[in-house]
Amino acid sequence: MSEMPDEGSGDQESTLSEAERTRRVDFLARELARAAPGIRFLSAREEIVPYECDGLAAYRSLPLGVVLAETEAEVQAVLRLCTREGIPVVPRGAGTGLSGGAMPMREGIVLSLARMRSIVNVDPYARTATLQPGVRNLAISEAAAPFGLYYAPDPSSQIACTIGGNIAENSGGVHCLKYGLTVNNVLRVRAVTMQGDIVEFGSLAADASGLDLLAVMIGSEGMFAIVTEVTVRLIPKPAAAQVVMASFDDVEVGGAAVAAVIAAGIVPAGLEMLDQGAARAVEEFVHAGYDVDAAAILLCESDGTQEEVSAEIDRLSSILRRNGATRLEISRSEEERLRFWSGRKNAFPAAGRISPDYYCMDGTIPRRAIGPLLKRIEEMSNRYRLRCINVFHAGDGNMHPLILFNGNDREEWERAELFGADILETCVELGGTVTGEHGVGVEKINSMCVQFSPAERDTFLAVKHAFDPDRLLNPDKAIPTRARCAEYGRMHIRNGLLPHPDIPRF
After folding, report:
1. Largest CA distance in the chain
2. What is the pTM of this model?
3. CA distances (Å), 216 to each of 32, 92, 174, in order?
4. Is the pLDDT of residue 478 over 50?
5. CATH number, domain 18-112, options 3.40.50.300, 3.30.43.10, 1.25.40.10, 3.40.1410.10
6. I need a surface site. Which of 110, 171, 292, 323 has the fewest CB within 10 A?
7. What is the pLDDT of residue 492?
8. d(CA 415, CA 111)
């Protein structure tokens, strides 16, 4: 749970007077023009308001300005200038992140990579694509499609999110169970450090000498270096794919069925679940053909050759029936398969149709704990007096509870935030983690104090220091300091609750 935003704008407090702010903006404009002639610098309020937050709109802050970089040389020039002047820099892709990882700092700038969207190369023989960071996730697969290839990680925001942002958050998607997260599909990253030095992580070879810093870079939330070029792995499009849609009359039974599928040695291409609230919201929105009377809906996809798919669909159907499925539907065409998936991929906008605001969580738990966590969330929903619908990557236990609330009601937003922190820390209690693919950003930074020991957090900060000793690159995100954790610990009371007649508080 992060500090509550101010009522209304939600902006961070600033220590700068308006006169000092104006002076700094003018200085930046002049120095940027010298360092990188022709670079675009936005500073008027109406120009920078669209950059005040990412997909987590509850947390907002206006930066001094926004730089729109178009080349690696411009990125270098901006970072060298900001290092010299001690100006914080927050990198940004498409702004679709859900943890506040791209929220600006009042006394810094936003460095947008959205204009760096060239597809440098698609190599069908090596099955790779080399791209600038502003290339959209879906555009990679579109460029590879003429060669019968595609890029596997497919976040729900894939039509808009960029590969640079995917690397920052180690994004996944509905097919990550079989094909892995971003970290499993990126071969090489070229980036610029805060000091303006060009570095490369990974290799196109099968292995690279030295420490594997590629894995450190992926998921680092823009805190270590700014990505300027990426090489990703492409895979062949499967010859066939089908989805089994199973209904369950109890969410715990559905969770047990997921465990049974994996225990049988089957790794589906996708294994996703929605509870009744989510299924009903989705069905009203996209008419995906979901069973709205079921307590839970499970989508299991098989892909491969037609023979492999037919055999696996038969096995999946048998396992699901034996483990409590009350109804099964199997996609009979590609159109129907995509329709089944359209429901899951539109769960977030569907939530937006039934509530003024929603707060999407991202905890991950062992598969065996899916049922117990959903029951705990139901109890929390009653305690915090807020509705919650659940969609999740059932195959790897990555949960996305969507807490529904009215952001214009400050007291209701406080309850939503407390509800979210309770869910995340319950995930840790059940043997999981506070994030699976959305990152920590500003949203989950306090919950990191619960998951990791002081020694572990100090190690994280030491890695940050090795890349960015002045702490200017996306500072105060993802890794909590000891002081922050000490303050958060003092707020924690037995069982996470303060004595209050109406509102549970940390």
Report:
1. 71
2. 0.90
3. 31, 19, 23
4. yes
5. 3.30.43.10
6. 292
7. 64
8. 33
